[in-house]
């Protein structure tokens, strides 16, 4: 805000001179009775003219974010960038120019000097890592709410699934649906939303499916593509560049018969393959270039007969990051099924079954840093399993009073995981330090928490509730910083517990054989 000098009036000239009395008012005793003693006394004097806010402040600029698809540029007007002959001819002429050759030789020596400097000296070297680690250890675990995203509709639905944007992390896709049986409330919206965290008051993009979305996932390769699993069993995908409507939807007769509780992208060359699981007992593989029918089908029949009537309903799904053909399915009957898509025979695709829960397995997740270990959440406990031990879990949390509704690993620390409870509490467990109680418990809301998703940096975690409120929490640095030798210590702990469990099982088998004898 600037003003010119002439707007302030004539300049003042000051000089030194002696003091003189201009007015002398003697005290009046009659006025002393009306005098009110006040301490302290504050008075404000404004010598300039009072101006309104619109007169002082500059005009407010409305900012709008708008994308631009840059294909080709920098060519002269007479050159067609899509004509390879013209572009090649212009490039060869420029490379033969003497000024281009001189500039390249001069810049090449400078770049070579900088590269050699970087190879000689590590400019990013940390000199005081140990002292920083000691300070972080002393910091008590804590978390604070940094953002709240609320369902803008009057009729509230549940936030059933969250997915972070794989590149920037500033966008969050949320699937909204009501999982109550035959919930036919009037004016209940079918929409799901993509939120921009810099503008949390209204959705950045509205997704309009034909049926409410139960799950929603960003494509890790093509960031503009989203995969959605609907409540009526259909599969759909969106391209954010093309608007709110889905690009293609699978036909009802060839889709799932129940809600799609799990849908994940496969790490393929094209980046267009995915698979889904539902409580109808099927796992279907898809290619979004042709959603008219699934490419493969697997029936979750543990008797290896392939009968849909004997199949177990899928409630959760997880994919092995190192071997995409292997995946885990958590069922509503309480068991976890390990599958292998590349098995030679169709009957061998179901490799083994893990049993430990008495209610539905709402979440199953492999450890991102130790892939042989995976987490399952169901009934009142969260369990840690090893692939080698089939009969029982190697570690388990205490039995809670409220149900556990979701869980996931920390993307940074190998022994830390999060669990969501039906009383609205988020528990942060670190089994490397505390195994009987969580390292931190946070009361996020009063309604049940149904979905969790941490950001890839480990600092922020999103919690979706039954009333559609998504709360973003920022956890302290001690809970999301990998300490020295922590990964090896966690690996040794899980291996030790697996050996102990194996010894216990062998002892039980020996006792059973003795009893039979």
UniProtKB/TrEMBL annotation:
GO molecular function: dynein heavy chain binding; dynein light chain binding
Cellular component, GO annotation: microtubule; outer dynein arm
Cytoplasm keyword on record: yes
Keywords, comma-separated and alphabetical: Cell projection, Cilium, Cytoplasm, Cytoskeleton, Dynein, Microtubule, Motor protein, Repeat, WD repeat
Subcellular localization, as worded in the UniProt entry: Cytoplasm, Cytoskeleton, Cilium axoneme
Biological process per Gene Ontology, one example term: cilium movement
Keyword Cytoplasm: yes
Membership in a protein family: Belongs to the dynein intermediate chain family.
Name of the molecule in the record: Dynein intermediate chain 2, axonemal
Species: Acanthisitta chloris
């Amino acid at each position: 805000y600037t003003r010119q000098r002439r707007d302030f009036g004539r300049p003042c000239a000051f000089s030194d001179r002696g003091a003189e009395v201009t007015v002398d008012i003697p005290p009046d005793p009659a006025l002393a009775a009306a005098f009110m003693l006040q301490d302290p006394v504050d008075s404000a004097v404004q010598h300039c003219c009072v101006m309104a806010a619109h007169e002082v402040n500059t005009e407010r600029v409305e900012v709008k974010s708008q994308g631009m698809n840059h294909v080709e540029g920098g060519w002269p007007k007479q050159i067609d960038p899509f004509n390879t002959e013209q572009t090649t001819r212009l490039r060869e002429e420029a490379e033969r120019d003497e000024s281009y050759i001189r500039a390249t030789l001069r810049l090449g020596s400078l770049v070579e000097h900088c590269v050699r400097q970087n190879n000689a000296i590590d400019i990013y070297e940390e000199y005081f890592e140990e002292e920083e680690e000691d300070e972080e250890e002393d910091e008590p675990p804590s978390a604070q709410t940094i953002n709240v995203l609320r369902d803008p509709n009057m009729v509230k639905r549940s936030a059933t699934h969250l997915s972070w944007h794989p590149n920037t992390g500033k966008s969050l896709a949320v699937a909204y649906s009501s999982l109550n049986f035959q919930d036919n409330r009037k004016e209940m919206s079918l929409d799901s939303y993509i939120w921009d965290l810099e503008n949390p008051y209204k959705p950045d993009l509205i997704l309009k499916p034909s049926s409410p979305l139960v799950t929603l996932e960003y494509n890790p390769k093509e960031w503009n593509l989203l995969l959605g699993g609907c409540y009526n069993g259909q599969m759909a995908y969106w391209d954010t560049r093309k608007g709110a409507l889905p690009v293609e939807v699978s036909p009802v007769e060839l889709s799932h018969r129940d809600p799609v509780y799990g849908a994940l992208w496969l790490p393929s060359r094209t980046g267009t393959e995915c698979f889904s699981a539902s409580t109808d007992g099927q796992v279907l593989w898809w290619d979004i270039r042709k959603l008219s029918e699934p490419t493969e089908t697997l029936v979750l029949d543990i008797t290896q007969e392939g009968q849909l009537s004997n199949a177990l309903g899928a409630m959760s799904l997880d994919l092995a990051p190192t071997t995409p053909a292997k995946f885990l399915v958590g069922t509503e009957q309480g068991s976890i099924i390990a599958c292998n898509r590349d098995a030679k025979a169709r009957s061998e695709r179901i490799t083994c079954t893990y049993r430990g829960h008495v209610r539905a397995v709402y979440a199953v997740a492999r450890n991102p840093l130790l892939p042989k270990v995976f987490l399952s959440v169901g009934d009142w406990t969260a369990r840690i399993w090893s692939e080698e031990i089939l009969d029982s879990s190697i570690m388990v949390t205490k039995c809670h009073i409220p149900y556990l509704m979701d869980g996931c690993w920390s993307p940074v620390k190998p022994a830390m995981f999060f669990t969501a409870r039906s009383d609205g509490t988020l528990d942060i467990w670190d089994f490397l330090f505390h195994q009987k109680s969580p390292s931190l418990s946070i009361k996020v809301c009063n309604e049940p928490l149904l979905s969790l998703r941490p950001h890839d940096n480990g600092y922020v975690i999103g919690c979706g509730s039954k009333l559609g409120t998504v709360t973003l929490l920022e956890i302290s640095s001690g809970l999301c910083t990998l300490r020295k030798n922590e990964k090896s210590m966690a690996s040794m702990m899980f291996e030790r517990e697996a050996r102990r469990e194996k010894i216990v099982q062998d002892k039980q088998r020996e006792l059973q054989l003795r009893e039979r004898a």
